[in-house]
Amino acid sequence: MAAADGGSTGVLAESLSTMGSQPWEVQEVCYGALLKLLGNVVRNPGEAKFRSIKRGNAAIKAKVLDCPGGVGLLLAAGFVEEPEVYVLPESAPLDLVQTALDQLQSHATAKSDANFRAERDAKLAKEKAIDAKLASFGGFARGVHKLGSGNTPPADVQSTDAAGSVATEPK
Q1: How far apart are CA 133 and CA 147, in angstroms?
Q2: Strands 80-81 and 52-54
Q3: E-strand spans in 69-139?
Q4: Among 76, 130, 145, 97, residue whose Cα is nearest residue 1
Q5: Helix (H) or strand (E) holding 69
Q6: Which residues form the PUB domain (predicted)?
Q7: Is 128 helix (H, G, I), strand (E, B) or coil?
Q8: Phi and psi (nearest 5°) for 49?
Q9: 26 closest CA partner among 64, 73, 74
Q10: pLDDT tens across 74-104, in order?
Q11: Do strands 85-87 and 80-81 pair parallel, antiparallel, or not at all (unpaired)?
Q12: At residue 114, what are phi and psi to the nearest 5 degrees?
């Protein structure tokens, strides 16, 4: 598969970088919509409905066009901006779309993994802070019970006989 030309590759990298700097919730929605749009073009290259994206479509606007970097990615994939739509001309090489799709998929996966790790690390840090606080009070942090001052047995042992009298015996 032929790679995209240098200009498209630069715009694509810049668009991905811009999208990647957005909050994860924005990125995730944009990645999902773009993967679907570009995937439809690659799977059905002859269908005109997949080569045209209406700018007035509220869902497309909210998910892709309002996301910084979303329009740039469409342009890098070969779409052309017209007054009402973004159109992928019949003459546009599908290699551009496939390259954009592949790089978008790779980028989205990397960002998703990074977000997962960040959430996991934050959760672990929170749990460690809770454990440290519990440990500072002397107990019950993750099954570690610090009930006594150490492992030394008491000096005297008290026992009760059947009559209820208490006797202290040295150990």
Answers
A1: 16
A2: unpaired
A3: 80-81, 85-87
A4: 97
A5: none
A6: 28-95
A7: helix
A8: -65, -25
A9: 64
A10: 999 999 999 999 999 998 889 999 999 999 9
A11: antiparallel
A12: -65, -40
